[in-house]
Design goal:
It comes from Parasphingorhabdus flavimaris. This is Type II secretion system protein K. Belongs to the GSP K family. With 325 residues, the protein is of the alpha+beta class. The chain has a five-stranded antiparallel β-sheet, covered by helices on one side. Strand 4 and strand 5 form a beta hairpin.
Amino acid sequence: MISGGERGAALLTVLLLVAVIAILAAHGIDRLAGATKLASNARELSQAKAYLIAAEAIGIQSAGQIVSASPGRTINAGGWNGREQTFPVPGGMITASLADGGNCFNINSLVTQQQATLSARPEGLAQFSRLMVMLGILDGDAADIAASVSDWIDSDMVAAPRGAEDQYYLQQEQPYRTANALIVDVSELRTIKGVTDDVFVRLAPWICALPTTDLSPININTLRPEQAILLAMLGAVPSDLTPARQFLGRRPELGYASLNDFWAQSYPASLGAAPEVQSQTKLTTRWFRADLTVEMQSALVEERALIDAARQPARLVHRQRGDAL
């Protein structure tokens, strides 16, 4: 016969087994739920990226159509320049805007290129310094930063008097070298001497990294009044932005037909711009910037794309994408 103690021990063993099985089952269910959620997130992220590609294609097509509609003069007809639009899609929402991607300071214009050699460009340095001063950066700091960025890009290893080459960066806590190449994304400036977080935050809305060393191709027919600083930086010295804003606010609806017409106006003429600077301004837009966001229930995907509309059809030349779940 089985004693009472043996029956108690058997019951305790059974209860322990049941408890272990219950814990394992709960753990398995939790892992299954987690795997299901991960699969759902991955599916939504994949769908969001597919929507981004579609929105990107529409942006490229739109840029081509804007240029084709008026080959000799790109204007803000229909208010396309910088206007944000939202489009509902199954399971989410797309937010998109298309802007003139040349209305910015081209950070790569700090140098000129002769074959494979990149050399500092005085006019690019001067414009960059004026832009920084008008953004509230001290004159001396602005000159140091401009020289350092030029040294970062140029081909030689000789630091400008106010710049920095490898010798400076190799002495940092985590050593690194200069790029000696064109900047691909403006975030690269964060690694350069003098570009503090505060400086970068001030500069970021106004700078771009075009895949060319041309001076910033400011389109006088699409430049908005709130972007007046980009017109004022073309002057010989930093200046008050109010006249520039007022001038852009009075621009003819169809823009200017020639650069001569534009520079003959009283405000641009007062800038005292050299011929090289006058020729950098444009009547048409080559570069377009598309800012795209796709928001799903559990996925947020953002992209900034640079479009080249110089040739038809327009083409994508650079994209920067970020994902957040």
